[in-house]
Recover the amino acids of this structure.
């Protein structure tokens, strides 16, 4: 099965190159798709210098619309989502991709090894509670943006708009529609 990796990017010139290098090491055959969400730094220039598929927004539209744009142009049957600022740790997405490729789940969600900087405790706990209330299933990492899923799941469940609730809404839609969601421990580190 073909794998695509969607990399939404907004002003990520500092880490985008490292992110792409890390992804190439672990997924050398994957289609890498950078969605430049109207960056004002050198993000677009860095993406152009790489062997990747590029989509550029003419105005900043946010992560949900960036991922929707990427989904529309990528060709993979299994699609990973990796933030452009993951840098050398971007390759931690491999176990998520493998879980979906091997049919262990329809969507794999990264549990981060640690968190540095600002906290997300209140929001995370509210998201956990909401997902449990509306689906009956508990998730440890409902806000994790590092995921892999089948194209079918994303086409049915990915919100095309929305702000910080993107990941929570994606998980809730998937669970309520009967898709299997599995959380997997990774070496990703959250930077607040």
């Amino acid at each position: 099965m073909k794998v695509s990796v969607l990399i939404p990017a907004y002003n990520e010139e500092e880490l985008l190159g490292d992110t792409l290098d890390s992804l190439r090491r672990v997924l050398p055959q994957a289609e890498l798709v950078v969605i430049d969400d109207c960056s004002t730094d050198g993000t677009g220039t860095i993406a152009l210098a790489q062997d990747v598929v590029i989509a550029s927004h003419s105005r900043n539209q946010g992560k949900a619309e960036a991922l929707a744009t990427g989904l529309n142009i990528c060709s993979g049957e299994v699609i990973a989502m990796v933030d452009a600022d993951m840098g050398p740790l971007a390759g931690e997405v491999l176990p998520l991709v493998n879980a979906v490729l091997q049919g262990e789940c329809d969507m794999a969600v990264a549990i981060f090894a640690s968190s540095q900087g600002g906290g997300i405790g209140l929001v995370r706990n509210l998201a956990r509670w909401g997902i449990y209330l509306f689906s009956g299933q508990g998730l440890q990492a409902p806000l994790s943006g590092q995921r892999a899923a089948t194209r079918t799941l994303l086409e049915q469940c990915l919100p095309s708009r929305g702000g910080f609730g993107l990941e929570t809404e994606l998980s809730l839609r998937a669970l309520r529609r009967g898709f299997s969601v599995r959380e997997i421990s990774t070496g990703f580190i959250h930077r607040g």
About this structure: The mean pLDDT is 91. The longest helix spans residues 121-135.
